[in-house]
Each structure stands twice: as structure tokens, then as C-alpha cells.
User: Which sequence fits this backbone?
């Protein structure tokens, strides 16, 4: 099979049930859909964060007052500033691009076997409610003469997760970034996450998990390769 990443994407999204596989919810989309996502992406210069703090702080003071709090009470005196710094940290992924971190970390290597980095912890913010979702990312790729420093896979996950997200887009962005940087034979990304908007509020389902996957190249075309990845990553 002469597969490589060609922008054809397969995603599966499902609530996590032990007896269900990934295969029954596969949707094909075009790379153009992924590129279209990017047009709406924003960025933020790290150097500007400090000058943005006073307005963010004032906004949090306002939120607290509208919650009926006395913002002059001792425990809350520095809360607006702390909260402003915290939200900047939670969204620090806007500071960096993939190029910033991949600089010099792609090597020529005569290796064409699967590489997997699994159980990468990620924390993100759901863009619908601004509450956390968090879980684990599993990344696999099959090199095409080029490999990347292993830590960079986790850094890519970090860049995209520290933004306002939906899990499907996060999954796809990680996969597409690796695909574009390495032109490998295939990329597979699976994320298992718990969404606090479904746990602490709303439907309040404590134990629900959401699993999303993006399969590119040989992972999309060859069921055995996909299965090998899923077997190696989903083992408890
Ligand atoms: N597909 C997807 N949905 C998400 C994600 N994070 C949050 N959501 C959903 O976004 C939806 C927003 O639905 P709305 O009906 O507009 O908002 P809501 O009234 O707060 O919805 P409930 O959570 O059902 O109370 C909810 O169904 C959330 O579960 C995500 O990463 N992916």
C-alpha cells in the first residue's frame, strides 16, 4: 500500500461504552474542512498578556459582583487578578504555532514502523461553557523517512488543547499538524476526555467519557494498521 497523509480524514465520536468499537461511526471529510477551521483561528502574543490583565481583572470583578459577591471582602481581594492570570494560562496555546516548536526537531531516520506516544494528559476549555474538559491523548504515526522528537508530539497536543476547544476539532488539529509537518504514511490520534460541562452542570453524568479519533493515510486505508494502533493504545 502506498499510503501517505493525503488530507482525507476519518473521525469517530462516541460516548465511551466498553463493548463498542470505533468502526461504526466513521465519517469522511475533506482537508478543506480542516483548513476552513483554521481561518477562524486566533492567536495572541505572549508579550501582550500583561497589558491585557487590567481589563480582564475588571471583567472578573464585574462577574463576581453580578454573582452577588462583595468583592471587597478579604478572600476575594486578589481573586479577579488571579482569575485573569488563570484564564490566560488556560488559553496559552494561542501564543505558539507548530513551527515555533518543531524548529530543528525533525530528523531524517530510516524508520518506517509505527511510533506511538500514548497517555498524554491534556486540559482544555470547552468553548461552549468555558469549563474544563480533560483526558488523555494517544498519538501514532508511521514515518516516511522523517521522525520528530517525541516530546514534540506532546507539545503539539499542548498547543491545541490550551485553547477554547471542542474535542473533535482538537483531535483533528493535532493529527493534521503532524501530517503537515512530517508527511508521514499515516497519523492516528485518539482522545478520551471527561467534560465538566456534562459532569458538574447540565445533564450531570459523572462517569461519561467522550472518545474522538482522527485517522489519516494508512490508518484510514488499512484496518489492520488501525487495529494495531487501537490495540496498543486502548489497553487498560
Ligand atoms: N460535540 C461537542 N459538544 C460539546 C463539546 N463540549 C461541550 N459540548 C456540548 O455543547 C452543547 C451545547 O448545547 P446547548 O444546548 O447550546 O447548551 P446547554 O443548554 O448548556 O446544553 P446542556 O449541556 O445539554 O445543558 C452541549 O450538548 C455540550 O455537551 C465538545 O467538545 N464537542
Assistant:
Amino acid at each position: 500500500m502506498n499510503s501517505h497523509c493525503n488530507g482525507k480524514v476519518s473521525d469517530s465520536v462516541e460516548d465511551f461504552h466498553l463493548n463498542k468499537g470505533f468502526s461504526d461511526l466513521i465519517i469522511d471529510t475533506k482537508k478543506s474542512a480542516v483548513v476552513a477551521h483554521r481561518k477562524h483561528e486566533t492567536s495572541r502574543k505572549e508579550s501582550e498578556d500583561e497589558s491585557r490583565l487590567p481589563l480582564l481583572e475588571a471583567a472578573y470583578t464585574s462577574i463576581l459582583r453580578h454573582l452577588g459577591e462583595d468583592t471587597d471582602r478579604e478572600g476575594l481581594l486578589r481573586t479577579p487578578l488571579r482569575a485573569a492570570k488563570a484564564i490566560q494560562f488556560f488559553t496559552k496555546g494561542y501564543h505558539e504555532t507548530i513551527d515555533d516548536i518543531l524548529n530543528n526537531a525533525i530528523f531524517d531516520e530510516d524508520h518506517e514502523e509505527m511510533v506511538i506516544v500514548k497517555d498524554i494528559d491534556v486540559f482544555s476549555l470547552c468553548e461552549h461553557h468555558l469549563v474544563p474538559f480533560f483526558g488523555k491523548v494517544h498519538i501514532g504515526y508511521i514515518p516516511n523517512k522523517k521522525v520528530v522528537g517525541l516530546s514534540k508530539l506532546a507539545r503539539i497536543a499542548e498547543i491545541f488543547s490550551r485553547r477554547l476547544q471542542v474535542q473533535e476539532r482538537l483531535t483533528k488539529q493535532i493529527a493534521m499538524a503532524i501530517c503537515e509537518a512530517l508527511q508521514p504514511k499515516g497519523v492516528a490520534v485518539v482522545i478520551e476526555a471527561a467534560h465538566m460541562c456534562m459532569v458538574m452542570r447540565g445533564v450531570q453524568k459523572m462517569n461519561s467519557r467522550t472518545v474522538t479519533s482522527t485517522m489519516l493515510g494508512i490508518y484510514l486505508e488499512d484496518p489492520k494498521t488501525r487495529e494495531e494502533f487501537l490495540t496498543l493504545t486502548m489497553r487498560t
About this structure: Residues 13-30 have pLDDT under 50 and may be disordered. Residues 126, 128, 166-168, 195, 197-198, 202-203 surround guanosine-5'-triphosphate (CB under 6 Å). Residues 5 and 183 are 6 Å apart (CA to CA). The longest helix spans residues 49-66.
